[in-house]
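Consider the following assembly input.
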Amino acid sequence: MALVAVLAIFVDIPKHQISFPFNCPGICLKIGDVQVNQEIKTHLGLDLQGGTQLILRLQYEKLPTGSNATQSELQAQAIRVIENRINSLGVSEPVIQGLGTDKILLELPGVDDLQQANDVATRQAFLEVKVPDKEHPGQYVSLQPPLTGADLNPNGVYVTFQNGTKPVVHFEFKGAASDRWVQISKDYLNQPVQITLDGKEVSAPVIQTVFTTGAGIIEGNFTTKTANELAIQLKSGSLPVPLEVIQSSRVEPTLGRDSVNRSLVAGAIGLLLVAFFMIAYYRLPGAIAVLALLYYTALTYAVFRLVPVTLTLAGIAGFILSIGMAVDANVLTFERLKEELRAGKSLRAAVEEGRRRAFPSILYSNLATIMTAGILFWFGTGTVKGFALTLAIGVGVSFFTAVIVTQMLLHAAIEVSSLRRRRLYGVEEKAPETRGTTTPVVAV
Amino acid sequence: MLRFVERKWWYFGFSGLLIVPGLIFLLLGGLKPGIEFKGGTLLDVRFDTPPTVADVSEVMTSLGRREAVVQVAEGGRIEIRTFEMKPEDQVAAETALRTKFGANMKDFNPQFVSPSFSGELIDNAIRSIALASVLIVLLIAFAFRNFGWAAFRYGIAAIISLLHDAAVVLGFFAMLGYFFNVEIDSLFVTAVLTIIGFSVHDTIVVFDRIRENLRLNPGEALNPVINFSIMQTLARSVITSLTVVLTLLALYLFGGFSMRNFALALLVGIVSGTYSSIFNASQIISLWQEVEDRLRHRATPAPA
């Protein structure tokens, strides 16, 4: 238990001065070939940080007929491609989620440039090599089967500068496509070959020599920025379906920074009031509950940072609710403890009975909450999902702290003789109250 | 001892007094969806030294934009959110602000904000709550499995008090919307979900006590056991709610402006949840039992 506390506090500390084992942001484990590299930090959601939100529609109707992939396969593929692109842009904490089978939700915290976000999400980046049409001079036709960007080797795509200034994009075909590329250079020597991107010509260089490898370059009218973007898109692969943006917005942080800070202060004041009240009303057990609550808060926050859970306002609400339930588990136990003491039980027996009697209430009420949270997480979207996740984690952790940690502390306390006076538990020193016996129910 | 069960019609009546006016305003369209749901315009204005929120609000109100939400942002900026503004409205707003703040105002940048909050989210939330309710009924029925078919009425009573609490909060905000133009946002949806979670939690604790006392006193009639169980859990119900209310009050009084309505919704819901778990949930069980008894002895109807 103490070990867990130390670990939790270690995870909670904002920035570690000591890098352990070596220059690693958070936890780094290396077991055989498996390397865990989990960065530890608090993840803020779009509503706390601001950013860009897009809803994209997959234009299935623009697909060539005869494609046999299902909609959900195509959607999953499109999500993977966008994910790769966003990751190479270095956006932290993007949310990329399928909505139904024909829409994708994209959230980019910290990105303010709507145009850039639109480009990243909708450029199909479908590269195709076309050769001169023998029947219609001046036009180009696809090869059979088409030679496309799907056959590129991602590691062979990079940007260099011709003559030190003009950016060009290098690419390289892999496997059999590489041989076909060499074959094209033999078949169409001294003829132009067209390179198209999303159906538009980017360049049509004349082949001057027979190639020896599958590599080539694209010379377009690139700036450094557009060349880099194209390289990223070619590396990440092309979108299987053209996408269109049906909704785009710059999301502003719901709460101004000022507001967040004030709310945090308010939360702290609230917790202090609760702690004061618990100690005033329950005395020693109250103090123990406050300890257990501190333990609970540290542990839950650590879990949030480790999973990692992206904190949104709704998520914070879930956290607050779970704190309330953690308090409740303690209150339930202590009320039972008082009852048993009033009924004349010894301290030790009362602690044990209190735990045993309060347990079903705590169990069933927490189960109901976790069940609800589970369903909300499963079917919910956006805000609701965040709420459900923090609530479920919070209630799970509170079950552990309120039942196990509080009990251990209580048991430890009653072993200390100076802490064994009944008044410390909010009950009269002797003479158990008789109120219970006039009622029809006698607790045994 | 307080007669919790015998006075049940009083308590049901009080709930009715709380819910019925709310429902009327709900039907009158009192719940006002905020800019998050409907989309609108965001005016991003930069100042040398930002004016107070009240001053900016005053300008917007004078333009007839009572719904405008004004916030201080980083870098000396003020953000004003309103429902969709036509280009000429935007020009009018810019002129009005320039007249008021003069050279202090540096930059005026209107943006379209599309609804970031789709109806899908609410639909999903409602569907999930329905499914969760079914599972909660089953869970409570499982906890009360020794009572045979009567076990289900405990689950159903818990769901009725859940609906009670949701109705109180929705109705309360419908009234606030109707009279004070208070809008609801995604935080409100979260608040309602939180209240529902708390309500079930609270009710289960009382029911668990009834279950234990029924087990300990097999021959006892239902109503006295319910009275006694409520009595025993009363301190706990009040104290738990009190701790949550303390936190929320702090949030309401000292928290940021945009957290206020959220804290208020939770406050109303938590108080309602505590009320319904003490004065409604168990009384529904008692009523159910009485109706059943009466049906069984139709020849000699028992007094209510």
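Chain B has two domains: 8-33+118-296, 40-113. Ask yourself how this observation constrains the way the partners meet.
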